[in-house]
From TrEMBL, chain A:
Keywords: Transferase. This is 3-oxoadipate--succinyl-CoA transferase subunit B. SUPFAM superfamilies: NagB/RpiA/CoA transferase-like. The keyword Transferase applies. One of its GO terms (molecular function) is CoA-transferase activity. It comes from Streptomyces bathyalis. Gene3D superfamilies: Glutaconate Coenzyme A-transferase (3.40.1080.10). Belongs to the 3-oxoacid CoA-transferase subunit B family.
From TrEMBL, chain B:
It comes from Streptomyces bathyalis. Belongs to the 3-oxoacid CoA-transferase subunit B family. It comes from the Bacteria. This is CoA transferase subunit A. GO terms for molecular function: CoA-transferase activity. SMART domains: CoA_trans. InterPro entries: CoA_trans_fam_I (IPR004165), NagB/RpiA_transferase-like (IPR037171). Keywords: Transferase.
Amino acid sequence: MTTDTVTSSELLSVVASRELAARRTVFAGIGLPTLAASLAHLTVAPKLEIVYESGVCGAHPSHLPETIADAVLITGAEAVIPMPTLFGSVLQGGHIDVGFLGAAQIDKWGNLNSSVIGDWHHPKARLPGSGGANEVMASSREVFVVMRRHDQRSFTEELDFCTSPGPDRALADGIRPLGAGVTRVITELGILAREGVGEELKLAALHPGVTAEDVKANTGWDLQVAGDLSVIEPPSADELALLREDVDPERVYLR
Amino acid sequence: MAVETAVDKTMTMREAVATYVRDGDTVALEGFTHLIPTAAGHEIIRQGRRDLTVIRMTADIVVDQMLASGCVSRLVSSFVGNSSAGSLGELRRRVENDDPEPLAFEEYSHYGMICRYIAGAQRLPFYPLRSYGGSDLPGVNPALRKVTSPYPGPDGGTEQIYVVPPVNPDVTIVHAQRADRSGNTQIWGLTGVQAEAVYAASKAVVVVEEVVEDEVVRSDPNRTVIPAHAVDAVVVCPRGAHPSFAQGYYDRDNAFYRSWSAISKDKERLTAWLEEWVHGTADHAEYVAKLGEEFWEGLAVGEAMSLPVNYGRRL
């Protein structure tokens, strides 16, 4: 199986799944994070517990869920808890290793915008808003972001609005952050990474055939390149087979 | 020993909305993806309520429909989108273009809303949470405030934390699987924030798939998420959560969610949809019948019974 038949969704899911090695609990949204977490469960992280915002812990779905609250996540789950317990005790209590988030915009510190494009009071586009993203950012040990689009509009020097701030902004506001904020950003061009507070996102890895210049040109800030820049191993035949045949055979999210 | 003390609080949806939802009220409609009180929203539209403040964590299709019907002047929410299936056309027109008129919008995060219900339910002046530090949300929502903890932090120093104010809706409406006539309400699957939203409100209406005998509820009291003392009205309304789902009763109508983006994007199409499906039906039973049995068979679910538990009894 050659990499040129691999779709963007497949590529992002496989790369994100590998990043879940050695993690115990993941707070997954629907779509690519679900695929990544499910694939990791079958590969690098068999003991991974997938927690959903709706209150499901330890889901064992018979079919791929279409929402974070899909009925198939409930039947056969290990636990279904009320939202105050999920957000208050599980998330804010510090039980989540990795939170997965998406966003319309991200800046070099890993702060995220999912509220508006333009001015909040007179937006050009009204987006869904925080949902639980603000809490996932504030309380997960680290956050992975999967961005379908890697361009200067999405990877921006200045957010139009900060919905979900990382620990740097929280500290500046006098609030003690629990986690490290965004540590990995996975895109079609490569992986940006940072260890945590006080660090910028740097280019850490490239997909085969992509150059550091390509990524810099598509990033809206002066992107620094890590000294040990690596090349990402293309999805293996095994990873692709699991993803296509076991995780999402009906291609609900695999586009 | 069997003293009949239970009060029968059952009424029709028409009576419940006429009695408990007045123009200008603050109305909470909760149900997180599961058990969304859609039929109640439709009845509010049919009765032509105006100037409502609607509180709903995930403002989705039913809110878009209430907006399009001119019922809502203020929205309090933490997620405004058509689940993972797309956009809310009417909400975007209201917010982006003030079309047909501006919408007052209070934006929170999910846990911010949950904490508002907790504070409201417990009649507390505020509730703290580890969110919002460094966010632009407090800049557009002055209800989000930062306080200094009266206690030392883990390192002995002072600690600051954001707080949210309580919310006390005039009425909270939730949908559930079943209740007895006095309102002991049983929910299984996702229970969301329904109990807190009910306790926060002055009045509570519970809409259920079915009313069951008292003995059914009493055989499994841990399943009762909302006790009768918190409930003012019980409305029987099978399939009243459509297009959302009721665990064990019917599945989510994913096709309708996917179609909503296109319907709501076109104002004329949206108006025609409301004319046909809400104003064109006398009540939810007609809406259900209009969809047809073949349609409902497509959302049917199989059985997955829980194993019984032994509560024990004194010998």
